[in-house]
Design a protein that fits this description.
Layout (H helix, E strand, L loop, with lengths): L1 H20 L6 H28 L5 E10 L4 E8 L1 H24 L6 H20 L3 H19 L6 H32 L4 H11 L5 H17 L8 H4 L5 H10 L2 H10 L1 H4 L3 H23 L4 H21 L3 H28 L19 H13 L5 H15 L3 H26 L15 H16 L12 H6 L17 H23 L9 H4 L4 H50 L4 H23 L1
Antiparallel strand pairs: 1-2
Helix pairs in contact: 1-2, 1-4, 2-3, 2-4, 3-4, 3-10, 3-15, 3-19, 4-5, 5-6, 6-8, 8-11, 8-13, 10-15, 11-14, 11-15, 13-14, 13-18, 14-15, 14-17, 14-18, 15-16, 15-17, 15-19, 16-18, 16-19, 17-18, 17-21, 18-21
């Protein structure tokens, strides 16, 4: 078991180092085979560990590789935990990650720097595995920062393109703001508990502090700041839409299987600690609700296909935090799982169009493409219906469970926010489908054809997962399989629920989503030409990015210019020059004094003695 775990965890790192070391000697096919096979082996390893775990009814397994920091107040180890939560995440990361790797073979077939792309993909997977398997928050932070580095490298893969380089830098800097909160929370954790082991902290916090203790509220709030940055929630969401400048498979990997799910995972992993801080949980729910609605409205105004999906991810992550805010951690994990399938499907389907149309992402240059992309348009439609909440697709079960939990726990306002988000989601996704695949052609499509099989097969498999994935959390005659599996780590629903088809909230959400789809079809079939011009307020995300630029970026830029153009040359450098000049004058005088003549030295001694005699006489008088 231990050997299988080590293989599953470290083989992506080994292949990353191998491809990086021999990048100039390896041809394209070996690079692709090495990169893809390593992730497949990793997936098989964790799948076998999951099967072994279930078949033998095991308890969470703690695996320590070595002692890292052996100090009493900062006792940290390189240790990992195998439990239902971490195993679920590893299967999502490696399973969806493998399909994205295979898809990438076709997507970047024309790129010169083939090896660097796949090496960074493997490093991304390894960093995310470290993050979800870590027993201790300090090691989790290592994976957390590794994911941030990998995203920077992949978003800026086309570094010679200014917009891509700028987007990568923006993602890196904005995430550092959230990471600062995480780091301060980590230091406070060591101060309070002397360890960062999550299981130990969960036991100690209930013994040492009452529910609602201010220090625990502060601690959880600091960790939530980290989650807000990594999962692109308000107000640190601004990096994710710009991250679409990277290759589409990278966007799929970031949105579906890695990075942005890290914030939700952190809150769920620390759910016992967050439950001790009701104030923080309320903030989590409010931020999630506001973000989900804000991002859904912003998605309506986007004309770039990938940016629509980017805002969609921000919105769906908001729904997951919405669930966490009322203690429905299982509902959040269930939606995280189904969302991984659906969002990978949507991004890779969009990638087929973007790749075959030579980088065109503007929907205003598309339209009528279903006659060319005869398979891709069906795949995108499946993802659209699924994320809209149409049965029997996956998100119908997970998203409606979130809404049911909000209503059952008495959070009516959050329920209506989630409901509104669900309706708007159905509208903007159907809008994106219609503008891309329906209506008249708005672009020269000579030479454009359906994507190759190496790209279609992974997307088709994701479509199957999108269709069937919801049944992981559906109760037939007993508890849902995913709920039963996660129940062992005390991740369950906030309130018991029965058959989801009998809940009135389900049908309210279903008819709401259906109405959103119908309105989109009616508007964009009948008035498509008049509706191509977007609402600027929505397209610019309510101008939050511009506000941040005016409030922070421009003042800091002016401060930097003042320092470099005025303060440094006219104050610092001038003061150094003046000091240097005066020092030279003094040193020149001292050099003249030090003549080397004995009678000169005797004269100075006599002169000094006379001065001292007069000094003491005057002082005595």
């Amino acid at each position: 078991m231990f050997a299988i775990f080590l293989i599953g965890l470290f083989i992506p790192l080994v292949t990353f180092l191998t491809i990086t070391a021999f990048a100039e000697k390896l041809h394209r096919n070996p690079v692709a085979w090495i990169a893809c096979s390593s992730i497949f082996i990793s997936f098989c390893s964790f799948a076998s560990l999951t099967l072994f775990y279930v078949m033998n009814n095991l308890n969470p397994v703690h695996l320590q590789l070595f002692q890292w920091i052996p100090f009493a107040e900062i006792n940290a180890n390189v240790a990992f935990t195998l439990d239902p939560l971490s195993l679920t995440m590893t299967l999502i990361i490696t399973g969806v990650g493998f399909l994205i790797h295979v898809y990438s073979i076709g997507y970047i077939d024309h790129e010169k720097d083939y090896a660097r792309y796949f090496a960074c993909l493997n490093f991304f997977i390894f960093a995310m595995l470290i993050l979800v398997l870590a027993s201790e928050l300090l090691l989790l932070f290592v994976g957390w920062e590794g994911v941030g580095l990998a995203s920077y490298l992949l978003i800026g893969y086309w570094y010679e393109k200014p917009s891509a380089a700028k987007a990568a830098t923006k993602a890196f800097v904005v995430n550092r703001i959230g990471d600062a909160g995480f780091l301060v929370g980590l230091l406070l954790t060591f101060y309070l508990f002397g360890t960062s082991d999550v299981a130990t902290i969960s036991q100690k916090v209930a013994q040492q502090y009452p529910v609602g203790a201010p220090i625990i509220a502060l601690l959880t709030f600091l960790f939530f700041i980290g989650a807000v940055g990594k999962s692109a929630q308000l107000p640190l969401h601004i990096w994710l839409p710009d991250a679409m400048e990277g290759p589409t498979p990278v966007s799929a990997l970031i949105h579906a299987a890695t990075m942005v799910t890290a914030g939700v995972y952190l809150v769920v992993r620390m759910h016992e600690i967050f439950m001790m801080a009701p104030v923080t949980l309320s903030i989590v729910g409010i931020v999630g609700g506001v973000t989900s609605l804000y991002a859904a409205l912003s998605a309506i105004g986007q004309t770039d296909l990938k940016r629509v999906l980017a805002y969609s991810t921000v919105s769906q992550l908001g729904l997951m935090f919405l669930a966490c805010g009322v203690g429905a951690f299982y509902a959040a994990m269930f939606h995280l799982t189904t969302h991984a399938f659906i969002k990978a499907l949507l991004f890779l389907s969009a990638g087929n169009v973007v790749h075959m149309m030579h980088g065109v992402t503007e929907m205003r240059k598309m339209g009528g493409l279903k006659t060319i992309f005869t398979k891709t348009h069906w795949l995108f439609l499946i993802g659209t219906l699924a994320l809209s909440g149409i049965p029997p697709f996956a998100a119908f079960f997970s998203k409606d469970l979130i809404l049911e939990q909000e209503y059952a726990t008495g959070h009516d306002i959050l329920f209506y926010v989630g409901l509104a988000t669900s309706i708007i989601t159905a509208f903007y996704l159907m809008r994106a489908y219609l503008l891309t695949f329906s209506g008249k052609l708005h672009h020269d499509v000579s030479g454009v054809h359906e994507a190759p099989k190496v790209m279609l097969i992974p997307v088709s498999l994701l479509a199957l997962l999108t269709i069937a994935g919801g049944f992981l959390g559906f109760e037939f005659n007993r508890k849902a399989p995913l709920e039963d599996f996660l129940d062992e780590v005390d991740i369950s629903v906030a309130k018991p629920y029965g058959n989801i088809f009998l809940a009135p909230e389900t049908w309210i959400a279903f008819f709401g989503a259906l109405s959103g789809i119908v309105v989109a079809i009616w508007l964009y079939r009948k008035y498509a030409d008049k509706l191509y011009k977007p609402i600027e307020l929505l397209k610019n995300g309510f101008y939050l990015d511009q506000i941040y630029t005016r409030m922070t970026v421009i003042p800091l830029r002016e401060l930097g210019r003042f320092i470099t153009e005025i303060l440094e040359p006219k104050v610092f450098e001038k003061s150094i020059r003046v000091t240097t000049h005066e020092t030279q004058i003094v040193s020149h005088f001292l050099q003249r004094v030090q003549s080397g003549e004995i009678r000169s030295y005797v004269s100075w001694i006599v002169l000094g003695s006379v001065f001292l005699v007069f000094y003491f006489i005057i002082k005595r008088v």
